[in-house]
């Protein structure tokens, strides 16, 4: 039970693992079949966010959160009280990871790459594994399966890739053109150092 005036706590597993970051972002909330309602994001983490809202929301209600210049994501209302609400992104994170036939073995690598969705900003993200045909990366903006992405390793030309799967805040990417084995060996040395 929360004290009067205190913000209720999230209860999802993702919320307990995420660090909340205070933000001031303008956005819109769309209820099923309704118009957009302006909202202000007050905190953000991988599992959800807090918002200020002019409308009363119902816990468990499915909504679409759109942040200006950053895209949109489906969410569920966790709580709503006194013009504030908590949204949980977990329902959007439950996509199934499709089995992808691999043409080459993946190698665990520590490091970062520059990643960009066509027409959007470039971000530095962690890479988890790598093969001559693809890689697994963390995400800043959540793409959809089939989206085109551009991966830039230091010292290499940009590689075009297709998103094969998305689970939570990671994605599997398949390069449009395989990396030559000799170049791949040099790349592993560079990423691992």
Describe it for me?
Helices cover 9% and strands 47% of the residues. The protein has 193 residues and is mainly beta. It has two domains: 13-93, Beta Barrel (Thrombin, subunit H); 107-192, Thrombin, subunit H (Beta Barrel), CATH 2.40.10.220. Strand 2 (36-45) and strand 3 form a beta hairpin. Mean pLDDT is 79; it is low at 1-17.
Give a summary of the structure in a few sentences.
With 193 residues, the chain is mainly β. It is built from two helices and 13 strands, in the order H-E-E-E-E-E-E-E-E-E-E-E-E-E-H.
Beta-strand share of residues = over 45%
Summed over residues and divided by their number, the pLDDT gives a mean of: 79
How many domains? The number is 2
- Mind summarizing the main beta sheet? 6 strands, antiparallel, barrel
Helix and strand layout, with pairings?
Blueprint (H helix, E strand, L loop, with lengths): L12 H5 L3 E11 L4 E10 L2 E5 L9 E6 L3 E11 L2 E5 L18 E2 L3 E6 L4 E9 L3 E5 L9 E5 L6 E9 L2 E6 L5 H12 L1
Antiparallel strand pairs: 1-2, 1-4, 2-3, 3-6, 4-5, 5-6, 7-9, 8-9, 8-11, 9-10, 10-13, 11-12, 12-13
List the keywords.
six-stranded antiparallel beta barrel, disordered N terminus, mainly beta, Thrombin, subunit H, 9% helix, 193 residues
